[in-house]
Automatic annotation (TrEMBL):
It is found in: Cell membrane. It holds the Pfam family YitT_membrane. The keyword Metal-binding does not apply. The keyword Coiled coil does not apply. It is a multi-pass membrane protein. Its main location: membrane. The chain crosses the membrane at residues 12-36, 56-75, 80-100, 112-142, 154-174. It comes from Schleiferilactobacillus perolens DSM 12744. Keywords: Cell membrane, Membrane, Transmembrane, Transmembrane helix. This is Integral membrane protein. InterPro entries: UPF0750_membrane (IPR051461), YitT (IPR003740). GO terms for cellular component: plasma membrane.
């Protein structure tokens, strides 16, 4: 890799690391302590674990690997590589924030608002860098690439709502309501940031 190529890759990678630091912070310090379901891979894995003999850890790994496979097939090598970086960074940052001794969780309303702020900004950093979080956002990116009239924010909301509705069968309707509030808040913030600072482009990176 030439020096020019390295510099061109460094900026997006740093933004991806920042994004995952924010996302992990939001989940570890606000979502998990308040038991707020998010409509993402973890929630889907917990539902599938209740319906099958396979446990949550295995389902999480299966879904994550599958999402990375779809990223490689439909979003290209650049997105796949950066999504790999994103997934490793998230696991590392989530473990770090989970182990830190300070607690910020206050009540569901404050936790949803603060989590939405950090996670929405974190998702923006990843998607603006042509990366997914190696989660269900991969499918939102694929649809937005193939059908530009369906933007990432809309598709991410649809996917999250479907998962949340399934999760309600396990966690109950109160958890569903908090999850819906979180979904619309964080995806709305992400959408506004993409609109203001870097309008979503059709996989602007070529492989």
């Amino acid at each position: 890799m030439s020096q020019t190529q390295f510099k061109r890759q460094l900026g997006p990678i740093l933004l991806i690391l920042l994004g995952n630091m924010l996302i992990a912070f939001g989940y570890a310090k606000f979502m998990v302590p308040s038991n707020i379901i998010s409509g993402g891979v973890t929630s889907l894995s917990m539902v599938l674990a209740r319906l099958t003999p396979v446990n949550v850890v295995w389902w999480t790994n299966i879904i994550t690997v599958s999402c990375l496979g779809f990223a490689l097939l439909f979003l290209g090598r650049t997105n796949f590589f950066r999504s790999m970086v994103s997934s490793v960074a998230y696991m590392a940052f989530f473990a770090f924030w989970s182990w830190t001794p300070f607690h910020l969780s206050q009540n569901p309303i404050a936790d949803v608002l603060l989590a939405s702020l950090f996670i929405g900004a974190g998702y923006y950093c990843c998607i603006a860098s042509n990366a997914s979080t190696a989660g269900l956002d991969v499918f939102a990116l694929i649809v937005a690439k193939k059908r530009p009239q369906f933007n990432v924010t809309l598709m991410l909301r649809v996917i999250n709502v479907v998962v949340l509705l399934a999760s309600a069968l396990v966690f109950g309707w109160v958890a569903l309501l908090w999850g819906l509030a979180f979904t619309f808040l964080y995806s709305g913030l992400m959408g506004r940031l993409l609109h203001w600072f870097q309008p979503f482009k059709k996989m602007q990176e070529t492989d």
